[in-house]
Amino acid sequence: MSDITIIGGGLAGCEAAWQLANRGLSVLVIEMRPERMTPAHTGGDLAELVCSNSLGAVNPYTPSGLLKSELRALNSLIMACADQTRVPAGDALAVDRSLFAQLVTAKISGHPNIRLRREHWTQFPSAPAIIATGPLTDGEFAQTLKSSLGEDMLSFFDAAAPIIFGESINFSKVFRASRYGKGGADYLNCPLSKEEYQTFYRNLIEAETVDLKEFEGSNFFEHCLPVEVIAKRGPKTLTFGPMKPVGLQDPCTGRQPYAVAQLRREDIEGELYNLVGFQTNLTWKEQKRVLRLIPGLENADFARFGVMHRNTYINGPKIFGKNYQLQAFPGRYIAGQLAGVEGYLESTMSGLVAALDLWGESKGISIDFPRETLSGSLTNYVSRDNVNFQPMNANFGLLPPLRTKGSKKQRREEYVERGKNKLFLFAKDLLC
User: Fold this and answer.
1) How many structural domains is the chain composed of?
2) How far apart are CA 192 and CA 296, in angstroms?
3) For residues 125 and 334, is the Cβ–Cβ distance under 8 A?
4) Domain with 262 in it: what CATH number?
5) Is 432 inside a domain boundary?
6) Co-location of 15 and 127 in the same domain
7) For the purposes of burial, counting CB atoms within 10 Å of the CB of 173, is it exposed (0-12), middle (13-18) or buried (19 or more)?
């Protein structure tokens, strides 16, 4: 087999490269940054996290927890680097995004079977190859994909939340706690009274947003809506979403606040904080004005304002065969968010699955991820006929139904145990 070309040095591309290289195959990773940047990236490190620094819940009996278990069981590079650069975040796995990207870059560039080339790639690749250019695929290459695949590219808007310098937060008005006391007191909570919330809400829905006429005809992805879009659905929608106060008690009053804005640490030193769930398309001037209405953020200094960008993904059910391989182009795969999976670890998983399938083909081995695993069920979802296809997160609803009925807790536990058992039998001959 000739060198395997991987286009894109994000989570999926890096994971795929690592899995293939560790199995003795020669890999060429092509990444256009920093020679050519995207609207959301800030540097040239591989696997840069551009939205949140959280990789989701660590509770083993959640979909996110199960997916982490599956990735760890398959010696995932991304999971190993995330575990090494973790920052406190209660019941979530969050990382110092700079250290995380630096570590992944060092692992990839230092592997003897991997060559890293910085190049703006525009041609449809020859086999064997994995295309993992992500939701911010460059326009020229996106045009190449459209022409080669014969299918329209689908797109949706995505948004990133603001990041605030910790030293600018008024700590006399906030309190540290995790919801329901899960994990340590890792979140900063800004409590709002009903009157404070109403003032904030009114200003938020009336604030000026960035003109998106150039992307007319596209739509938002439901799992990453801008906070102002959520707010405009009704005056209480935020209190059931990103400003939900349930499970938190203000130590100053001894009561649950009417609403809460949460800040999660972005780095190990605690100098930067992400405003959780506040991805936004407000103008930078309006972000500064409106977000400073939140108690504790009156003098907030922004390390990064929220930004909006267009995410692109492939209509997988129409073009995928098995394990993200293109039906019309044997030996070529699409992985990551471009493949229609939504989420950091879901993207990682798709790169891992595509890599194992490509390796299996080189050895004459059929790679069939069990449907009882989230890796197998999500892979199946993005490949099957789906009239209204949209990107999908890992969730228990994708798994085959259980034979027995029980409480929600019992069903979650059974899903997890069944998935782990199936993965153990599947993975024992694949580990290296």
Assistant:
1) 2
2) 10
3) no
4) 2.40.30.260
5) no
6) yes
7) middle
Q: Are residues 297 and 402 in the same domain?
A: no
Encode the chain in three state secondary structure. CCCEEEECCCHHHHHHHHHHHCCCCCEEEEECCCCCCCCCCCCCCCCCCCCCCEEEECCCCCHHHHHHHHHHHCCCHHHHHHHHCEECCCCEEEECHHHHHHHHHHHHHHCCCEEEEECCCCCCCCCCEEECCCCCCCHHHHHHHHHHHCCCCEEEEEEECCEEEHHHCCCCCCEECCHHHCCCCCEEEEEECHHHHHHHHHHHHHCCECCCHHHCCCEECHHHCCHHHHHCCCCCCHHHCCCCCCCCCECCCCECCCEEEEEEECCCCCCEEEECCCCCCECHHHHHHHHCCCCCCCCCCEEECCEEEEEEECCHHHHECCCCEECCCCCEEECCHHHCECCHHHHHHHHHHHHHHHHHHHHCCCCCCCCCCHHHHHHHHCCCCCCCCCCECCCHHHCCCCCCCCCHHHHHHHHHHHHHHHHHHHHCCCCC
End-of-domain residue from the set 274, 294, 309: 309
Rounded mean pLDDT, 103-121:
97
Least confident of 164-178, 263-277, 328-342, 378-392: 378-392
260/356 same-domain check: no
Domain boundary among the residues 309, 330, 361 is at: 309
Q: What is the pLDDT of residues 361-391, one digit of tens each?
A: 999 999 999 999 999 999 999 988 665 677 8
pTM score of the predicted model: 0.82
| 280 contacts 228 by C-beta, under 8 angstroms | yes
How many residues are recorded in the chain? Answer: 432
Whether residues 241 and 373 share a domain: the answer is no
Residues 258 and 341 in one domain: no
Q: Mark whether 302 and 175 lie in a shared domain.
A: yes
pLDDT single digits (tens) 304-361: 899 877 788 898 998 999 999 999 999 999 999 999 998 999 999 999 999 999 999 9
- How sure is the predictor about 52, in pLDDT bands with cuts at 50, 70 and 90? confident
**Could you tell me the residue range of the domain that residue 224 belongs to?**
160-309
Residue 101 lies in a domain: yes
Residues 175 and 301 in one domain: yes
Residue 303: partners with Cβ closer than 8 Å, 6 or more residues away = 163, 164, 165, 272
Task: Label residue 293 by pLDDT band (50, 70, 90).
Answer: very high
Same domain, 148 and 166: no
